[in-house]
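Milestone M4 deliverable, item 7.
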Amino acid sequence: MGRFSSKEDLVESLTQVCIREEIKGGEVRVRGRVRGAELVRLNSETRQYEVMATVAGEVDLVHGNGVIAVLGDQVILRIDAVMSAHGPLGGQTLAGQLRAASVVDVEFVLDVFDDLTINRALDRDTGGLVLDSIQVVASPDPAPVAAKPAVKPAAKPAAKPAPAQVELAVTSAPEPKATPEAAPETKMSWGEAVAATDATKKSGAIGVQRPSGTSSPTADEIYADIDLDGEDEELPAMKPGDLIDHPKLGRCRVMRVEDEEYAHIRLPRGKISKLMLDLFDVSFGGKENGKNIFTLRMHV
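Output delivered:
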């Protein structure tokens, strides 16, 4: 987000910002006050752009919206504007594609797609510049790669000693069977024990029959410390403040989530970028300092 207050051309000033910041895909919004505005339209019959309105004095730029793209290696901005002017006949509303306007005082907002290049091409049938393709590209700045060591979901295996503790608890459970203290609890004589054993053999029972009056540990007691719930936790919703590990841009912070389709993120260099979530496989990577971490993987 920024502001122009010089008398330079609005479209040219925005184009220079995009060239300086190496922006090759995004959206721009403007509002404010300009002078000497020139609006054009595409004549489908002549396949040429023609001037439809020129205002020499100051006008209110009520709204301007456009797309940042490239044609070859040249940055192209198309801004459609709505203006309010006051003339001899009173207030008038003008609309069209903004070709030129001298800045009086203008505010602008840039939504940047750092991982995309939007390409335009000349339509030979209409003579206009149309959307040709959208490319997913790598970030030109490799510095964010250094942020990868900060990704600590792999540290989670450190919690795996828990199964070792469980195994010890399970193997120790049968120990009461072998302890001699169990015999006094039965209050049986040696002859009663032999008779009970013979009765078990005659009945064809498999295994050791525990005499009545003795207690055996139940499955709930043996596995009381074991978490048998194997269901996966539900993937948490992405929200402002969460962290994203982008395969090209590195560790980024979520500033805003828009309709679960776009995420406005702050890059390691501080720039705000708008991310199209549909282009990635999103997985939950754990938590860090109370913040959810999401890992992005580009669709192949």
